Structure formats: C-alpha cells, structure tokens
C-alpha cells in the first residue's frame, strides 16, 4: 500500500514510500501533491497571522506595547492598595522581570527548528508536548485569555466613553453604560474586516501612543492634586478574610497587566526571516523598546496613584480623578482609542483559529464573512465588573500563558542541566506563576459576586 510523508520543516518536500522503501512518484501523484501544496499556500496567504510577513522591528515595539499596556495599568494603583507597599512593589518588579524573561524565551523558540517557524502559540505547544496534547494544553488557555481580554476591553471602552460623556456634559441626561458599550463595539464591526496584523499597524501605533499618553496623564494629574489630606495606606477590608481575598484578586490584576505573551509569536510571524537575518533579532529589539515603555507606564501610575490616594483609589484611576475636567475627558478618550487597538491585537489570533478550523477542517471557502465578533459585546454588557474581571481572568489564564507555560516548554524542549542556572530560573518562574494561577481567580470571583449583589442587568 502506497503512503507518503510530508516533511514539515518548511521546505515543502514530499517523500513517497511503501513497505519496501522510497518510490519514484508518478505524474498523477506529483499533480495531486502540487494541488495540495498550492491550496495550503493559498490558505496560509489568506489567514490573518501568515498572510503578511513584511513587518519592521518597530511594528513589534508598538504591537507589544498595545498588547500589554491597557486596561491593566489603570487598575495598578487599586492593586497596590490591596497588596500594600512592600508586597505591591515586590510583585510589580518580579512580574516585570519574569515576564521579560519568558517573552525572551518565546522569541528564541519561534525558530528553534531550522527551516520552520512556530507562527502560533499552539504550534509551539504541539512541538513541546505533542500534536494532540499541545493543542489541549495551549488552545483553551489562549482562547480564554484572548476572549477574556476582549470582554474586559469591551467594559473598559464603554466605561471610558461614559466617563467622557459625563465629564464633558455633566448637565446632560444620564445614558446607560450598556449603550456606551454598544457604541464602542460598533467600531469593531468595521475593524474586524481588516485582514491581518500589518493591516492594523496604524491602529496599533495610535493605540501605543495613547497608552503612554493616558498613563502620563494619570500619574501627572495625581501629582498635581497632591497627597489627599485623609489618605490611608492600610488595607481597606475590615476583616482578615476580606483582606486575604482582596490580596489574591490584586495578584490577578498584576498578572492581567502583563498579558502580551499570548500574541507574541503571532506578532513575530509578521516579521520576515532568513537564515542570515532571523526574525528574533528585530523582534527582540522591539520587545526591549516595548518593555521600557511598559515600565514608564506601569511603575509611575501604580506607585504615584497609590501614594496620592491610598486605599480610597478606584479600580480605574481615571474614575478617581475628577479635575481638571478637560484633561480627564481627554485621558478617557485616549483609553477608548487604545483599547480599540488592543482589542484588535487580541482578536486577530482568535479569528485565525476560527478561520483555520472553518477553512482547513470544514472546507469553507475563504471569505471575510467568516469574521464576526458580537459575543464579547454581549458578555461585556451583561457582566461589566471591571476589577473582578481583571482578577479572575488575570489569574485563571494569564498566569499560565505568561508566567510559566513558556518555562515548561523551554524545559521540555531544551532540557537544561538539572540544578543549573537555567533549570532553577525556570522552576522559580513556574512556582510563582502557579501560585498566581491558584489564588487570584478566587479573589476575582469573590469580587464579582460581591459587586453582582448590587447590580441590575442591562442598567
């Protein structure tokens, strides 16, 4: 019986075999293989992740800034109020260092196999854990992260639009938050038809600039207000149980703030690569620039916001700020622009997964009609609990995919020497990430339950 193998190393080679050894393929076989290869290339050229590979290193920089700096930075002062000065500063610094290290690992592993690129997170997982197990481990977590981010950004965009409206027109008739979320969502019904990452580079660049802008406004406006006369830095909860659960939720808020790993391979896939000039060089340059921007956004907002307002700070610091009116209105509009870009960055891999399934497995014809995203709008309208959502999603899925899954893959693939520096470094990251994954969803879920007690659906 004739069988053939496909060498999946990126060379497009086919070897034909039977039980007796290698065979010379017949013309019919060659035609069939050429047709299959042509169809695969046509699909890859259409899918959002692989359709364009002409990105520059600075695309990597602003895509990563857009992916990472977002709703999370606005909650960091609130997270500090639930962690306290010592633990809060330690967790912020540890998270910055650990996530930079795990991001470096992913950039390095993108082209670890000569001639092949792992363009998607789950492809790297399949290489590390096996074809089926890799999918089962990575895909559910990645989908939870990316859909979860889109839900939170639906809430953030709607809340920031409402805040902008209320600040600019304080005497106007109040409008339900639900309508503002719907207004925000309507933008994505248009942007969802952009074909790939490079096509949203303009949106992503604008979003990256906005993130630095509103972060600067958040901490500079706080300094302008000065330390509040009745500021308190103790834990806000009145019971030990409440304090512990709030602490857990705050860990999830921090984990949510470092979420860019879920799209890093997909971003790197847009950069051209040759054996002489591998994509990891420009990608890493962009990551370093992005992480400098992340530090400039995160640390001033978290530390200054907590220093000025103490434990009275809101879970979105821009809501705590009331004056000057024009500056706060502008900052909230900056947030709206930024989360539009961030939403697109996280939705693109979800589109890619859906379209791969529909086109490759179910043989649908490639068409833009396949792209549709109203689910997150519905969930965002139904459950607009910003702080609780950050804590829950941050711990449940962001901690694995950001803090320790890259380390597990690194250990599985490279097998560093036991008790060596690389071995210890990876295991420390794994332990820290597992703790985050276990405790922070507990605190986030409790916060959602408490907020839901006083919430009216679609109000």
Automatic annotation (TrEMBL):
CC annotations in GO: plasma membrane
Pfam families listed in its UniProt record: Aa_trans (PF01490)
Membrane topology: Multi-pass membrane protein
Keywords: Amino-acid transport, Auxin signaling pathway, Cell membrane, Membrane, Symport, Transmembrane, Transmembrane helix, Transport
Keyword Transcription regulation: no
Keyword check for Transmembrane helix: yes
Compartment(s): Cell membrane
Positions of the Amino acid transporter transmembrane domain: 54-443
GO function term, MF aspect, one: amino acid transmembrane transporter activity
Taxonomy, superkingdom: Eukaryota
Its job: Carrier protein involved in proton-driven auxin influx. Mediates the formation of auxin gradient from developing leaves (site of auxin biosynthesis) to tips by contributing to the loading of auxin in vascular tissues and facilitating acropetal (base to tip) auxin transport within inner tissues of the root apex, and basipetal (tip to base) auxin transport within outer tissues of the root apex. May be involved in lateral roots and nodules formation.
PANTHER family to which the protein is assigned, alphabetical: OS05G0424000 PROTEIN-RELATED
Similarity remark: Belongs to the amino acid/polyamine transporter 2 family. Amino acid/auxin permease (AAAP) (TC 2.A.18.1) subfamily.
Protein name: Amino acid transporter transmembrane domain-containing protein
Organism per entry: Salix koriyanagi
């Amino acid at each position: 019986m004739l069988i053939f193998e496909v060498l999946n190393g990126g060379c497009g080679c086919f070897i034909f075999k039977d039980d007796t050894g290698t065979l010379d393929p017949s013309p019919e076989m060659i035609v069939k293989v050429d047709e299959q290869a042509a169809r695969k290339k046509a699909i890859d050229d259409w899918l959002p992740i692989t359709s364009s590979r002409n990105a520059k290193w600075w695309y990597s920089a602003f895509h990563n800034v857009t992916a990472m700096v977002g709703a999370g930075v606005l909650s960091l002062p609130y997270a500090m109020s639930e962690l306290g000065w010592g633990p809060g500063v330690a967790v912020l610094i540890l998270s910055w260092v650990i996530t930079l290290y795990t991001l470096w690992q992913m950039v390095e592993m993108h082209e670890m196999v000569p001639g092949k690129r792992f363009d998607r997170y789950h492809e790297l997982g399949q290489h590390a854990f096996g074809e089926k197990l890799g999918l089962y481990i990575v895909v559910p977590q990645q989908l939870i992260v990316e859909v979860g981010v889109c839900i939170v950004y639906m809430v953030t965009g709607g809340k920031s639009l409402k805040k902008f409206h209320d600040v600019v027109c304080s005497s106007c008739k109040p409008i339900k938050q639900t309508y503002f979320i719907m207004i925000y969502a309507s933008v994505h019904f248009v942007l969802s038809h952009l074909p790939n990452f490079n096509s949203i580079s303009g949106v992503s660049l604008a979003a990256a600039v906005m993130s630095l802008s509103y972060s600067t406004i958040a901490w500079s406006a706080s300094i302008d207000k000065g330390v509040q006369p009745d500021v308190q830095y103790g834990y806000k909860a009145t019971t030990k149980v409440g304090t512990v659960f709030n602490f857990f939720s705050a860990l999830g808020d921090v984990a949510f703030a470092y979420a860019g790993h879920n799209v890093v391979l997909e971003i790197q896939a847009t950069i051209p690569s040759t054996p002489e000039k591998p994509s990891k060089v420009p990608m890493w340059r962009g990551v370093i620039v992005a992480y400098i921007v992340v530090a400039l956004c995160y640390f001033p907002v978290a530390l200054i916001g907590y220093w000025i307002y103490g434990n009275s700070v809101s879970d979105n610091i821009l809501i705590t700020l009331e004056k000057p009116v024009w500056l706060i209105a502008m900052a909230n509009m900056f947030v709206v622009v930024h989360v539009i870009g961030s939403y697109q960055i996280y939705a693109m891999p979800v589109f890619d997964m859906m379209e791969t399934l529909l086109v490759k497995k179910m043989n649908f014809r490639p068409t833009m009609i396949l792209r549709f995203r109203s689910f997150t709008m519905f969930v965002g309208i139904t459950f607009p609990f910003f702080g609780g959502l950050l804590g829950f999603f941050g711990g449940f899925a962001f901690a694995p995919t950001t803090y320790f899954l890259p380390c597990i893959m690194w250990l599985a693939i490279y097998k560093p020497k036991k008790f060596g520096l690389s071995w210890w470094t990876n295991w420390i990251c794994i332990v820290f990430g597992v703790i985050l994954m276990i405790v922070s969803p507990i605190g986030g879920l409790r916060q959602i339950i408490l907020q839901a007690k006083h919430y009216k659906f679609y109000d």
